[in-house]
Structures are given as C-alpha cells and as structure tokens.
From TrEMBL, chain A:
Protein name from the UniProt record: ABC transporter ATP-binding protein
Keyword ATP-binding: yes
Domain ABC transporter stretches: 10-247
Region of interest called Disordered, as start-end residue ranges on this chain: 228-268
One Gene Ontology cellular component: plasma membrane
InterPro entries assigned to the protein according to its UniProt record, in alphabetical order: AAA+_ATPase, ABC_transporter-like_ATP-bd, ABC_transporter-like_CS, ABC_transpr_LolD-like, MacB-like_ATP-bd, P-loop_NTPase
Alphabetically ordered keywords of this record: ATP-binding, Nucleotide-binding, Transport
GO function term, MF aspect, one: ATP binding
PROSITE patterns: ABC_TRANSPORTER_1, ABC_TRANSPORTER_2
Source species: Jiangella aurantiaca
Domain of life of the organism encoding this protein: Bacteria
From TrEMBL, chain B:
Domain MacB-like periplasmic core residues, every copy: 35-238
Stated name of the protein: ABC transporter permease
Organism this protein belongs to: Jiangella aurantiaca
First-listed, main subcellular location of the protein, grouped into a coarse class: membrane
Cellular component, GO annotation: plasma membrane
Length: 268, 403
C-alpha cells in the first residue's frame, strides 16, 4: 500500500489503441506516462498524432486495447462502465475547447452541473458552484448566461465546472483553442494559479506556444511519446513562483528518462 | 486534498428530482418544437376525452330525464301481429285499475278512419299520418305530459268538439294559437284547438296525435269506446309482477294478443345504441394518439442526433448510461404528458361547450382523465424508448467528437 501523495494520479503502461479500418489506425502505439499529484503537464502533438485518443483514455471515455491504465490508483480495465462514470463524476474534471456550456442557463447553474451526477442537492451544488466561480474570478458573473460572457469568461466558467467537484485532476482539451490570445493567456494564467494551489492539470494541445508555458511537456507523434521534458521553473517565470507546487512532487522526479516506464518497473 | 480514495464507494448518482429537471430543460431549450410535437398527442387525447365526455353527458341527460319521468310506466297495447281491429276490451281500464300495485291508469283509443286537416279545403289524402285519438282526462298525469300552451281537456270540454294537439301535430298543421280562435277540420267536423302539448318522452306516439275528449269521440265521430293503449303507473317494487299480470287482466279472453312494454327501457336502449358510435370515435381518437406518439418519437430521435455533444458532456461529467437513458425517456414522457394535459383540457372544454349547447348536464368520468394520463405516459415511454436507448448506447467519445 502506497502513501496517497506518492501515488501517481495517472499511470499508463504500454498502452495501445487501434481503430478498425484499412489499414487499421494505430492511434496509440505503446504509450507509457505517469503524472504525479500537483503536476501541470502539456501533452503536445499535431493533429492525427493520437493526442485526442490519449485524452479519451486519460478521461476514461475510451478504453485501451492493450496495456495498463491506472487512474487515481485504479486499474481502469477492471472497472465497469458504471464505475467509470463514478470515477468521472468524482475524480476527473473536463475542460473542452468549445466550453460546452448550456446556453439558456446561468453561469452558476452551468458550474453546478459539474456536480449533477454526484447526488448532491441543488442547493449544495449551487453553494459550491458560487464558491468555485469566485475562485476563477467570476464572482460578479454568477447570474449571467453564457451569451452574456466573453470567450475567456466562458472558458473560465467551464474550468470552474470542471473544478467544482474537487477532482484528482483537470483534463483540458485545447482550452485556449477557441480564444483570442489575450483570453487564452488569461485562461492559462488561471490554470497556473490552480496548479500553484496544488491542482493536477493536464493540458492537451497542438500549440507549442501554449505548451512552452507549462513546466512539463510530453510530445506525442504517430501514437508514440517522442519526448517528455520537465523544465525547472524559471525564476520569476510566466507561470508564477512555482515554489508552492512542489511539496507533493519529489525533486528526483523532476527530470526522468522515458525508458523508466517502458520497462514497467514498480519504482514509484 | 483530503477526500475518500475509494472510487467504488462514491457512486455516480442523479437524484430523481434532477432527472425531471434535466428532462425539462431539454424541452425548454426548443419550446416551439416541444409544443408542436405535444400538439399531436393533444389532438388524440382531446378527441378521446371529448368523445367519452359527450357520450357520458348524453347518458347523464337520459338518466336525469328518466329520474324526472319515472321508470314505472307500463304501456299495454294490442300485439303487433294483430293488425286489423287492433283494440283492447272496453272494460280493460277498469280491470287494470283494480290491480293492487297500479297507482294510476289512463288510456287513449284511436278513432278509426278519422283524420285531421288544417281546413276542409285540404286534399283528404294529406293526413300527415296524424292519429286522431280519444283521450281520458287523467292521461297527462299518468304519462307525465305537460301542456306547452292553452289547456288540457277536462270533463266539460271532453264532451265538446275541442282538440288538444301533440307537439309534432301542431307543427305539421302550423298551429301555434291556442286561444280558442283556431279550428281544425277533424273527422268531418270543426274542432276548436284548446291546447298544445310538450313532447312526451315516455309516450312519443302522443306527439303525432290529435287528442279529443272520450265522450265527444263517441257522440260526434262514432267511436266505439275501445282503448288502443292503456297507460299505468305501477309501484316501484311490483313492476315485474304487474307486468306478468297485465295481459290476462286486460284481455282475459286472449292474453297472448296483448303486448306490455316499458317505455323507459326504450329510452335507455337508445342511449346504449350510442355506445357503438362512441367506440368507433374512441378508436379514431386512438389512431390520432398513435400518430401523435409517432411524432414524439420522431422529435426524440432528432433530439438525440442533435445533442450528441450534450450526451458526451454529460458522460464526461459522470452520467451513467442509465442516467442518459432516463433523461431522454423522461423528456419523452414529459412531452407526451404536456400534450395529454393540454388535450384533456381541450376535450373537457369541447364536452362542456357541446353539453351546454344541447342543454345537457356536463359529465366527465374521472376514469377518462386517469385513462388519458395513463395513455400519455405509456405513449411517451414507448415513443422515447428507442431514442433513449440509442442515446445511452452512444460511446462518449463519439458524442464529443461529433462537434
């Protein structure tokens, strides 16, 4: 039994995913990846690289054909569809490029919907939603509908919805893809702030500029991980002091060869 | 970051109240479409409710009429097979009056070969099939008839050439004045019109009769005094008993030539024959409901296709397949219930309008409303079953990438 803080939030070992076709598409071809609590990771790759498939697998929306997927310490292959839903309801927060906010509903209720499938009462869901909206800087926008919000505010509301259930990690799919650069920068700043507060965040993007802002960059191409670099936080860097993010992340893991995972050692 | 680590203990859960809320929000997103597809159900339910409501109101009307008129009137007439000289013995009225359970007796006797005309200039062939009958003065009380205008025959008037017309007779002859100024040509004599009767539901044959006094018929028209129909009111508990006694009482010599009938039965039977038509109309309403259900199913199929990304989002937020299925099923049932509620109101209003236009009492049995509610829930569930199952089966990734 490992100590909770030492256990990786996400651990993939030699994960394969093929889509039927002629020839079959090898979307993931032996991916191994580990994400520790409190990390802020970018998964970067061009379209067709397999990053969307990786997103789906990390989010338990899709299952691997082969290999081991552990989310929050649980082997996904052993979980039923219902249990995966429970995992998503309680442990994973999704942020999408298109926000997916309900148009006729206030920001508060959109964020409260992040707790819809936890069985909490509406009153409690709204109470927590209001708190989370304040956390993402939208305290004065609670009763606005999505069409009354700017693009950046919409995405911040969507982040709040992902965050409201206090998930083990946030999974952000091109969170800045539909935003202008100023709004995109603001959303990235928010993700950095959350990271500084201890939240684990995984950003999936094709944008190297976005990835360069994040401390760890996993490059993916043709279904394989090309490189996995962790940058030492620059002094006074664009993503904050970085000092607070540290406590759960052992310094030894800051830089790590890819081979460590492909050998499948139980080192962590 | 302190939270329970056991994933299995923390289940994905959607409260029933939230299921309804989620289903309702789906409808609210496209109100016009919801209203239009609910309209199909509404038409079906409205038709069924109105059909049952109108027939119930009609039955209620007959029941009230029977309550007012009483069901204890028996009519004695010669059997239909006995065509020529269809008469009863002269003393039959007195014989019936002697029966214990008979509370009142009266009779009419058709005056053979007598006809009534507006004037002596009218072609004798144009009799309008109006029967000239001698009537006893106690006839009105026994058959619950009322005078529409003028007066009824009394002991004095009965001896004079005075006539009281049935409601239809008055219409056929075109007579509305009953002030003693109007005369009709009856059996070769001028008779003064003294009154006109209201329609008599229990003795409709009186509506097409011209009624004259018994003594006048005998003295002026050569009537032999033999009644053709004897009316009697019978104590409620003894109707069957009296019914069996009557033929032998009226005509001891030939009891088989006497037919006893109960006019209230005929009225009730008339109401019952309406039920065939009601069933037919109800089936038509059912067809409309079916078509409405197909409309709802169609709407739901489209909704599921359009909302793939919503399904994907909900799955990402932690919805199970069952939650998705329940959401769309709930939406379909709500849609049908919306139509059902509107249809019930519409059908009720149609019933009320129809009943009031006929001056019937308004009657809408509770089982109709319960049935309408049940039918809409069943239709909604059936219509939503396939689209909901389809939405639930959608893989969450496909749902999200569809954008």
């Amino acid at each position: 039994m490992r100590v909770t803080t030492a256990k990786p939030v996400i651990r993939l070992r030699d994960v394969h995913r093929r889509y039927p076709g002629r020839p079959p598409v090898r979307a993931l071809d032996g991916v191994s990846l580990s994400v520790a609590p409190g990390e802020l990771v970018a998964i970067v790759g061009p379209s067709g690289s397999g990053k969307s498939t990786l997103l789906n697998i990390l989010g338990t929306l899709d299952r691997a054909d082969a290999g081991e997927v552990r989310i929050d310490g649980r082997d996904v292959a052993t979980l039923s569809d219902k249990q995966l839903s429970a995992l998503r309801a309680h442990r994973i927060g999704f942020v999408f490029q298109q926000f997916f906010l309900s148009p006729g509903v206030t920001a508060l209720d959109n964020v409260a919907d992040g707790l819809l499938y936890t069985g909490l009462s509406l009153r409690e869901r709204r109470r927590r939603a209001a708190r989370t909206l304040a956390r993402v800087g939208l305290a004065d926008r609670t009763h606005h509908r999505p069409n009354e919000l700017s693009g950046g505010q919409r995405q911040r509301a969507a982040v709040a919805r992902a965050l409201v259930g206090r998930p083990s990690f946030l999974l952000a799919d091109e969170p800045t893809g539909a935003l202008d650069s100023a709004s995109g920068a603001a959303v990235l700043k928010l993700l950095h702030e959350l990271h500084d507060g201890g939240t684990t965040v995984i950003v999936i993007t094709h944008d190297h500029g976005v990835a360069a802002e994040l401390p760890r960059q996993v490059h993916i191409l043709d279904g394989r991980i090309e490189s996995d670099e962790t940058l030492e936080p620059a002094q006074g860097g664009s993503y904050g002091t970085g000092g607070d993010a540290g406590p759960e992340v052992p310094p030894s893991r800051r830089s790590r060869p890819l081979a460590e995972w492909s050998e499948g050692g139980d080192a962590v | 970051m302190s939270r329970p680590t056991d994933v299995v203990s923390a289940r994905s859960r959607l409260r029933p109240r939230d299921t309804v809320r989620v289903a309702f929000s789906g409808l609210r997103a496209r109100p016009l479409r919801a209203v239009l597809s609910a309209l199909g159900i509404a038409v079906g339910i409205a038709a069924m409710v109105a059909v049952v409501g109108i027939s119930a109101s009609s039955r209620e009307q007959v029941n009230q009429q029977l309550d007012a008129l009483g069901t204890n009137l028996l009519t004695v007439a010669p059997s239909q097979s006995f065509v020529s000289e269809a008469q009863l013995p002269q003393e039959s009225v007195d014989m019936v009056a002697r029966l214990d359970d008979v509370t009142s007796v009266s009779a009419v006797g058709i005056v053979p070969d007598a006809a009534v005309y507006r004037s002596d200039e009218i072609d004798p062939n144009q009799t309008n099939a109006i029967a000239v009958s001698a009537a006893r003065t106690d006839l009105l009380d026994t058959v619950s008839a009322t005078v529409a205008s003028g007066r009824w025959l009394d002991d004095v008037l009965s001896a004079f050439p005075v006539v009281v017309l049935g409601s239809e007779t008055a219409e056929l002859l075109g007579i509305s004045r009953t002030d003693g100024e109007v005369q009709v040509w009856l059996g070769g004599e001028w008779f003064t019109v003294a009154g006109v009767l209201d329609p008599v539901p229990l003795a409709p044959e009186l509506d097409t009769s011209a009624l004259i006094g018994w003594p006048a018929a005998e003295s002026l028209l050569g009537f032999d005094g033999a009644p053709t129909t004897v009316y009697q009111r019978v104590a409620e508990g003894a109707i069957d008993e009296v019914r069996t006694l009557l033929p032998a009482t009226v005509d001891p010599a030939a009891p088989e030539e006497v037919a006893v009938s109960r006019p209230s039965d005929a009225l009730a039977a008339q109401a019952a024959t309406d039920e065939t038509l009601t069933t037919l109309l109800l089936a038509l309403g059912g067809v409309a409901l079916l078509v409405g259900g197909i409309g709802v199913a169609n709407t739901m199929v489209i909704a599921v296709l359009e909302r793939r990304s919503e399904v994907g989002l909900r799955r990402a937020l932690g919805a199970t397949r069952a939650h998705i299925r329940r959401q769309f099923l709930g939406e379909s049932v709500l849609l049908a219930a919306l139509g059902g509620g509107g249809g019930a109101l519409l059908g009720g209003a149609a019933t009320a309008a129809f009943a009031s236009s006929r001056e019937w009492p308004f009657a809408l049995p509770v089982w109709v409303l319960a049935g309408a509610a049940g039918a809409t829930i069943v239709v909604g569930a059936l219509a939503g079953a396939y689209p909901a199952a389809r939405a639930a089966r959608m893989p969450p990734t496909a749902a999200l990438s569809a954008v």
